[in-house]
Amino acid sequence: MRTLCPPCRARWRPTVSRSSVFTQGFWLRDIHVPAAIALQRRFKPRPDDVIVASLPKCGTTWLNALTFATMARRAYPPAGADHPLRRLNPHQCLPFLEGLFKGGREAELEVLPSPRLMNTHMPLPMVPSAVPGCRVVYVCRDPKDMAVSAWHFLRRLQTDLAFSVVFESVCDGAVAFGPVWDHVLGYWRASTAMPDKVLFLRYEELLRDPAENIRKLARFLGMPFSAVEDEGGTVDDIVHLCSFGHLKSLDANKTGHLDPLLPVPRDALFRNGASGDWVNHMTAAMASRLDKIVADKMRGTGLTFQ
Ligand code: A3P
Predict the structure, then answer these.
(1) Is the pLDDT of residue 75 over 60?
(2) Is there a contact between 214 and 70 (Cβ–Cβ < 8 Å)?
(3) How many CA atoms lie within 13 A of 218 on its CB side?
(4) What is d(CA 31, CA 36) in angstroms, rounded to the nearest whole number?
(5) For residues 261 and 120, what is the distance between their CA atoms, to the nearest angstrom?
(6) pLDDT tens, 236-257?
(7) Where is the Sulfotransferase domain (predicted)?
(8) What is the per-residue pLDDT across 133-172, written as a single tens digit (0 to 9) for each?
(9) What does the alpha-carbon distance between residue 197 and residue 138 come to, in Å, rounded to a whole number?
(10) 8 pLDDT higher than 70
(11) From 206, 244, 246, mutation site for ligand 1 pocket: most ligand atoms within 8 A of C-beta
């Protein structure tokens, strides 16, 4: 068994993704440890940068698309036939911080014009300069649905993966970038302390009222919708452009793979697009066990998932 990863003194232990290490209180895939170190040492946000942050399987792809469409709406009207989101996967529209920092490609960030939009799955302590150095938009999701979504996603890589393995990892806190509660609470606490720097969103709320959440996002970004935009239906155009059904139908999201290092077909990012699917995968006892673990961790924080 491997013991310590020399640069970070990380502890190794088998998890769902067998190559995970526990470092600075979080489980990271070993390939992301160098990125975590580099981000802490060298990421220098600009004040007008925007970072979309989330745990995997909590609505990252959707929030990437919504934030990109909202920020870029003057250059790319959302109803336009040539909108980048009609020909690119949302992840191709903004850089992934750990992808750049793990590969020594961080200089690519420097040449991007402001305001830059970026994406990360890293817990906040791994990107300490982000708050209050720039603005962060975070999305969380009911951990039960996150577990189900993660299982379906990981099964595209490992077809015999049992749901119970993923479920136990979530309960143990040992999912990539987890524990879930510590990841969520880091951004939650930052959002309550500095609401002008961190916008905390929920996947379930985005589903319930996407238009209202897009308006909230635009206000947070300092670019609220004008009366002319309101009358012209810009918000509804963004809702439609980024909707599950629309994105899923596009060739850019039906073909190709996410990343050479992650040979998952892009269509795996668009599975069900709903909340509450956990009822089809968990017994009542499993659900209440995970709910209780999460509620215990959240107690006294002002954040709940029930
Ligand atoms: P399900 O597997 O429950 O369907 P991430 O982007 O963080 O990997 O999250 C993936 C989850 O978000 C998947 O959940 C996926 O279907 C859902 N999703 C992707 N795009 C979406 C959209 N435009 N609207 C709603 N849900 C979306």
Answers:
(1) yes
(2) yes
(3) 23
(4) 10
(5) 16
(6) 999 999 999 999 999 999 988 8
(7) 47-302
(8) 999 999 999 999 999 999 999 999 889 999 999 999 999 9
(9) 11
(10) no
(11) 244
Q: Encoding tokens for residue 40?
A: 């802490």
Domains of the chain: 31-298 (3.40.50.300)
Where are the alpha helices (H) located in the chain, listed in sequence order?
33-42, 60-71, 97-102, 107-110, 130-133, 143-155, 163-172, 180-193, 203-208, 210-220, 227-232, 234-241, 244-249, 251-254, 284-298
Atom 3 of ligand 1, nearest CA residue:
149
At residue 7, the pLDDT reads 34
Q: Which pLDDT value is given to residue 9?
A: 36
Q: Among positive and negative, which fits the CA dihedral 95, 27, 63, 125?
A: negative
Q: 206: CA distance to ligand 1 center in Å?
A: 11
Distance of CA 258 to the CA centre of its chain: 15
For the question of residue 183 being annotated catalytic, the response is no
Q: Which of 121, 152, 240, 246 is the catalytic position?
A: 121
Q: Tell me the C-alpha to C-alpha distance, in Å, between residue 187 and each of 46, 98, 140, 143.
A: 19, 18, 10, 16
pLDDT tens by residue, 195-211: 999 999 999 999 999 99
Instruction: State the pLDDT confidence band at 118, using cuts at 50, 70 and 90.
Output: very high
Tell me the three state secondary structure of residue 47.
coil
Q: Is the CB of 254 under 6 A from ligand 1?
A: no
What confidence tens digit (pLDDT) does each residue in 272-293 have?
A: 999 999 999 999 999 999 999 9
**Average per-residue pLDDT for the chain:** 92
Distance CA 167, CA 149 (A): 11
Question: Is the C-beta atom of 58 inside 6 A of ligand 1?
Answer: yes
pTM, full prediction: 0.94
| Of residues 126, 115, 138, the one with CA closest to residue 43 | 126
